[in-house]
Specification:
Layout: E1 3-11, E2 20-25, H1 33-43, E3 48-52, E4 59-64, E5 69-70, H2 74-88, E6 93-98, E7 101-108, E8 111-115, E9 123-126, H3 131-137, E10 150-153, E11 158-162, H4 166-171, E12 191-197, E13 204-212, E14 218-221, H5 225-237, E15 244-250, E16 258-264, E17 270-285
Parallel strand pairs: 2-3, 4-6, 11-12, 13-15
Antiparallel strand pairs: 1-2, 1-17, 3-4, 4-5, 6-7, 7-8, 8-17, 9-10, 10-11, 12-13, 13-14, 15-16, 16-17
Length: 286
């Protein structure tokens, strides 16, 4: 049997039990794909990461959900960077190699920031469904939409759904009986990131992220860094004035408050950050 140490961290967390949980395996050398996938299912978190040596970056990272491997994901980037800094003594600036590319990550204490891997203009596409249909799938009315939903890709494509008010974000209730009707991403996933700018608090965004589960039903992710990066891509694609800076609140609806920092530079670079808190360590024997 082989022993594999792991750490549990919460990402985008303001408190010990806030943020989005992540399991990080410190050394995945010798671990095959099937074992990685089985461990991700065993821990049953939204993502589990596995650290490997890299010839091009501080470390190579593989990211698994309970059902498949991902090219890139936001909160796994920050949580894994937090562990890599401690393991490899990299200091507060390091790079991580993902299938989607090399991602720079920096820290100020335990607040980490990544730069989205996609360079140049973000990839966008129409939702593929009428606005009214997308709204109905989310339990909303067409007039709740600020503008037409669109696919945005700055590392992993997701459907972004801009709403007129934070109240509409809080009221969103996806129809789990109509999963077959959801539009599908290029990666074969069904997702929706609903968000609204808060007119009462300039610079604040309220967001929620929904995805369809294996076997049926819709789940809600408490904190989604890749979707926050895609919000930066949406700002660029819709001609928002740059530079731009927002704090994004997510996860309150599921009892896991997440606070994400989004910065879009004048040159279009998109950075997403948040605090990482380690809460435990252990070893798996396989």
């Amino acid at each position: 049997m082989a022993s594999y140490p792991f750490r549990l961290v919460n990402v985008f967390a303001d408190t010990t039990f806030g943020g989005n949980p992540l399991c990080v395996f410190e050394h995945a050398n010798g671990m095959d794909d099937a074992t990685m996938q089985a461990l991700a299912l065993q821990f049953n978190l939204s993502e589990t990461t596995f650290i490997l040596p890299s010839q091009e970056a501080s470390a190579r990272v593989r990211v698994f959900t309970t059902g498949y491997e991902m090219r890139f994901a936001g909160h796994p980037t920050l949580g894994t960077a937090h562990v890599v800094r401690d393991l490899l003594a990299t200091g507060d600036a390091l790079t991580l190699e993902f299938q989607a590319g090399i991602v720079p990550v920096t820290a100020q204490g335990d607040v980490w920031t990544f730069t989205a891997p996609h360079r140049g203009a973000p990839r966008t596409a129409a939702a593929g469904l009428p606005d009214a249909e997308v709204a109905a799938l989310l339990g909303l009315q067409e007039d709740d939409l600020l503008s037409s939903p669109m696919w945005v890709d700055t590392g992993a494509d997701q459907l972004l759904v801009p709403l007129r008010s934070p109240e509409a974000v809080r009221r969103t209730c996806p129809d789990g009986a109509r999963i077959a009707d959801w539009p599908v991403s290029s990666l074969g996933r069904k997702t929706a990131y609903v968000f609204a700018f808060d007119p009462a608090q300039p610079g604040q965004v309220e967001a929620r992220y929904f995805f369809t589960k294996q076997g049926g039903g819709v789940a809600e992710d408490p904190g989604t860094g890749s979707a926050c990066a895609n919000l930066g891509g949406w700002l660029r694609a819709t001609g928002h004035a740059l530079p731009a800076r927002f704090q994004v609140s997510q996860g309150d609806a599921v009892g896991r408050p997440n606070r994400l920092h989004l910065d879009v530079a004048a040159d279009g670079a998109i950075c997403v950050g948040g605090r990482v808190i380690e809460i435990g360590r252990g070893v798996v024997e396989v």
